[in-house]
Structure prediction request, 592 residues.
Amino acid sequence: MLTANELRKKYLAFFLSKGHAEIQSASLVPENDPTVLFTTAGMHPLVPYLLGEPHPMGKRLVDYQRCIRTGDIDDVGDDTHLTFFTMLGNWSLGDYFKKDSIEWSFEFLTSSEWLNIPLDKLSITVFEGDANTPFDQESYDHWIGLGVAPGRIAKLGLEDNWWPAGGKHTGPQGPDTEIFYWVGEGEPVGNKGTHSKEWMEIWNNVFMQFSKGADGALSALEHQNVDTGMGLERTIVALQGRSNVYETELFTGILKKLEELSSFEYAASAEIKKSMRVIADHLRAASIMFMDGVEPSNKDQGYVLRRLIRRAIRHSKKIGIESQKLVAPIVNEVVSSLGESYPMLVEKQDKIVAGLLAEAQKFEKTLAQGLREFSKFWEKNKSVSGEDAFNLYQSYGFPLEVTHELAHEQGLEVDREAFAAEFKKHQDLSRQGAEKKFAGGLADHSVETTKLHTATHLLHQALRAVLGDHVEQKGSNITAERLRFDFSHDKKMTPDEIKQVEDIVNEQIKRDLKVHSEQLTVEEAKTRGAIGLFEDKYAQIGGKINVYFMGDFSKEICGGPHVEHTGQLGGIKIQKEEASSAGVRRIKAILG
Ligand code: SER
Prediction:
């Protein structure tokens, strides 16, 4: 029976034989993208190259990428949701397109030399077309040409056959063709359109040929790319004929260890099964996060890690395992199943154990007391209010999903709305955290950073003058040496545009504009045409926002500080213009 490691190696070998170069999995923590906390798909770290930057390893790439998706933490424990997974991917950066991509997928899946899957067990979807883009006849014809029966091909819309799904996102995108495996009872019938549940997606081939701008319009990319993603875990479930991932070797070692440590059998009850699954999934994800340098904290990635560990610890208490006994043996199992793919796990095993233990013990200290407190709320009202939930979080470190789950376990009503409101408050807190982190650098008010800060305003306005009003600040980071500015724009800037922007900024510096600030209401600021983040907390003083004016050239919401005259800047030089993330460009510039 094919194991996950064998599938991964076959996949790499197959695409190496087709002229691809193997690239390493990027970190789970995106280096250049302030808009997401974790890498959620194989394409994520490759966005700059999909947008047109040349990749040092060439135009045909193959990889396996570690990913985290945390949208459904509450659902982990069922048959399908995992927080951590690995995505296999092959990539064409302006090289081959639909024909080769489809033929190679077909060959890898069905050839006796590779996976040898009977063709009848596979079905396909292709994009049916919409007002903007026609039916993907070409992909359809390639599949038919390879012998796929017309009844096995479903033609579906934006939600199913466009990536990113639904067509709502900006940045690189296009129609896709997806491959499904029969997981139903008996002989395969129909296709994804007719028997949705019985066909499980294993592979997605995206034909990235467009970029969507902030205005929603599609423009053709400089070159046509292929982005494919095959979920390693779910493909293994299908190929091994299992009903869920916990039955594969990626999890059986961990579950067996949990049975040993708890003296419960995994299958003893639905509750025990769920607890063991949650512990296994969460500690696996947490180990990989530690490997990538994430530390538990109250914001951003650190907070997600904290929630995973705390939920795992609560469940391990339920089945009677103390963290002291739990952590080292489970990490050991995680390392034995994932260490070959991610050797850094082996190197950092001791650190991971120590980090997990420290966080687990911190939580264990307040867990018993928090549970008592929870029972009190419960006895009194037979419900937990949003405020109670927040209290449990603040005083006892209970992440909201733990409280939510506790209430749920009582089998009684949960004040869902109040919970939702608290969740939102939380999200806002962690979003602010992410923004603050990215806004960074301004705590240093040295002369150099202050000058670069003023230069950033001039740059922002000059970009809007040259590229258009869709340009908005997406992030800014200033050190004493340089400024870095991220802004919405979906194309690489031409050398001429860069020069124009540079010239405009230098002209405003030469004009030696006077810099001053005024406190305005949001309304006044809008009427006077100020740009910037209206919700910026740094710029708010007593219900008003602070707006910096630079002569007649720039009006921008900002907490400062800035220089007094633009002449103090000397001159600007743009050193680099590059893609930062989907629909976002990044400029680095210096003064002098
Ligand atoms: N980006 C696509 C996905 O994540 C294909 O890799 O499904």
Observations:
- The two ends are 64 Å apart (CA to CA).
- The first strand starts at residue 21 and ends at 22.
- Residues 253-437 form one domain.
- The chain has three domains: 4-245, 253-437, 447-591.
